[in-house]
Amino acid sequence: MLVLKHVPIRSFGENIAYIHKDCSIYKIDNIKALTRIEIHGGHQPVFAFLQIVDNNKIVRPDELGLNTEAFSQTGLPEGSKITLTLTPPAQSLAAVKRKIAGNILSAKDYEAIINDISAHRYSNSDIASFLVAVGSFVTPSEVLDLTEALRGDQSLDWGNEEIVTDYHCMDEIPGNKIDLIIAAIIAAYGLPMPKTVNSTGSSCTGVLDTMNVLANTDIDIRTFKKIVAEKRAAIANIDKIEICEADKIITAVENQNSLTTQERSIASLLATKMATGISHLLIDIPVGSRAKIKTSQEAMHLRKLIEYVSDMIGLNVDITITDGSEPIGNGIGAALEARDVMKVLKNKEDAPDDLKEKALFMAGRILEFDPKLRGGQGYLVAKEMLKSGKAFDSFEQILKKQGKKEPTQLGHLTRDIVADKAGKIARINTSLIGRIAVLAGAGQYAGAGIDLFHKVGDNVAVGDILYRIYSCNQNDFAFVSSVIESGKTGFDIE
Amino acid sequence: MLVLKHVPIRSFGENIAYIHKDCSIYKIDNIKALTRIEIHGGHQPVFAFLQIVDNNKIVRPDELGLNTEAFSQTGLPEGSKITLTLTPPAQSLAAVKRKIAGNILSAKDYEAIINDISAHRYSNSDIASFLVAVGSFVTPSEVLDLTEALRGDQSLDWGNEEIVTDYHCMDEIPGNKIDLIIAAIIAAYGLPMPKTVNSTGSSCTGVLDTMNVLANTDIDIRTFKKIVAEKRAAIANIDKIEICEADKIITAVENQNSLTTQERSIASLLATKMATGISHLLIDIPVGSRAKIKTSQEAMHLRKLIEYVSDMIGLNVDITITDGSEPIGNGIGAALEARDVMKVLKNKEDAPDDLKEKALFMAGRILEFDPKLRGGQGYLVAKEMLKSGKAFDSFEQILKKQGKKEPTQLGHLTRDIVADKAGKIARINTSLIGRIAVLAGAGQYAGAGIDLFHKVGDNVAVGDILYRIYSCNQNDFAFVSSVIESGKTGFDIE
Description:
Chain A contains 17 helices and 19 strands. With 494 residues, chain A is an alpha/beta fold. In chain A, helix 2 (93-100) packs parallel to helix 4, helix 5 (140-151) packs across helix 11 and helix 6 (178-189) runs parallel beside helix 12.
């Protein structure tokens, strides 16, 4: 028996066990590579990967250390007596190998794979292998099987609500934070919209970051359900809501290794929405030469796949294909985007019109899920909710319930990018603008980002400000400045 | 500036940096996932993956901890001042993505990938992605490009030796430790055979484990070269020889995740042999229904691929296709195999004949690389080297130079598996026998394994011992016993 110790290291995804090189019980001389073990003593065995320690302050020879992730899974206090056994690689890895070899897997295979991932029996490399294998070839019925497997047993139940709505955009278009405006409008109308949001994997800021500027998003299931029941909407960090645990593990590896594919994204999205108890979902597929989905054929292919899977699992899905060629709103970066959202909700004159119109259009389509509304009325009702201030009131109440925050300071280091010639703005390189925002610190610091002063079609004179960069620290600021100075501004003036 | 600290944890493959959650310099609040950093202060930047620590005994807020792997790469003493920067994923991952999408990569792509892997810029998941992508489809010229890239800049130089030989078997046939006998014969004849051996990835014991029972294999390049110069052969753990570093990193991930493919094995083998300075290589491809290579068509495909690549890189390769359907020798497990090897070298009457004959056949083919020998003479010369005791003498001298070890005790827990009917042994399930040996502890403990008393074709009476199991601990012994008791012995008597 070894004595359990918590080694407070967060490893982002893998369960790590630390054993002393002179371990008093297990002979570890011949461990030369990643070794999978099972720790016994708690309610159920916990899987972990062994690392060897040569320092008594970390673990003593009579102890087994577990990192924060693994320790919390044992449910045991420090000092508990535990035993460990070596364990072979997860059985379902045989199915992953068949997938690598180009075979079609069965529903049972996907179930076994997802179960093993949930139980932390896959190393991150195992998960990456699975993702690459699934990424290179997968049939629609496999996407369905994967979705069913990912959905898991735990799901949220909204009682006798007949319509539980949500909106999801398949791409991260810089500045596109219409989700919050939509939630406010739908809540004001009275339909529930329980929104669970991922932290962004990559690039720009996501809905979670923007909401985080305005209120706390780390709320538990109980609070989440209570706010939705009372206020009709809430925006929660999905990490704190205990559903689709395997999907979270997979998503982390996907983001860390840029292994996202459309098929996996669809399975992940639909499984999560099912588990959140959504009945009616509006999906937005932006198409643009610099977006993830580049052609309308691709978008159509995706639409058919989503429709097939959602019909089979019994989720009502409406799909809209939109223009993803330009940033939406003016601000890119959490605080700047939150400012835009609040401007729209407060009916401010300088609120970005594209953001408002897109939000109204989408909210309108969601409202029409309600049989009580006539076709075509949705947009008008959405507009009424916004104009009357009801959407703003609803949103303020949600913010208060979630824990409203003080306004975030914008980055103190700023730089204006100005037009070097007069003319009309012909194009904005959306992905470059997104990257410049990231370099400025967006995603890392809420106050960092870009504020656009002009959009495509605007006429500008020499010296007019195209956009302003905000950075929170000297490093980011120097870095983004050097990119700008190399002549890449992202704006084409003709 | 942070203060460098060595955190003595071995993580088997990845460079890990440990930073305190309240780090005095870098704000780490918003780190939610695997983050790649570069550590500056040494001769060249060292890449690592960040983990967050909440314990001052591991690292203080003003320190940056590095695991054993990363710390040794900095070349800096503890207490050095270092800085760190966030770093994006390795650039060559774009090529891996193209490979995942089914494209053919260029020589430059492979070079870039291997360089980034050498520099520890790939996470294990990145490497797994690369392996799965390459595993699903690769052209012969890509195998060549990968081989060239893996070979690297460092290689061993054997001065004006015209023929530098080696033998390699493409599969792990239980008990097949002819490598050591071949080395003894070739050395006795006077041709150099500098043998660098991997630790086995998986299953059974490898050549390295068997040699390790007899002598020390952890020798450095200088000692290795010296022994080969003086004694014509040496058997070294390749981990201690600084060649093909990227290949070692890849092989570790491959073994840990069972992602080996024939194409990658060929690239790895030929790159390593080139870097070891081998000029003439004999490759053994065992074929059998329970072996890795199941049909002679597969073996032929492999042969052509090996010939193509080795011709292009200028390595003289002779290929022999052998029977991989039965274990070779009697012992399976490091100490038992070492005993068989020594019996053959000592010309003992009870030396396993199959082991001796296979070794003589292979040694004969290698000897015929020497233009001084007439075709057909090799086998006879090999036999002469063995019979005369010259091979034994050579081997004894090599063992002494490498550091001869005391004999290893066989496992104290034994069990005899006896024939339950009289008849002729029709078949031995080689892979099952290999697995039983592993369950008994072979691979983990030198003294554990299986000793075969009979082979295919032997007539046995009821109660005759088929094989004896040796285990070194009660756990393994109980486990292997339960498998045997379930009726799986691996022997078919008809």
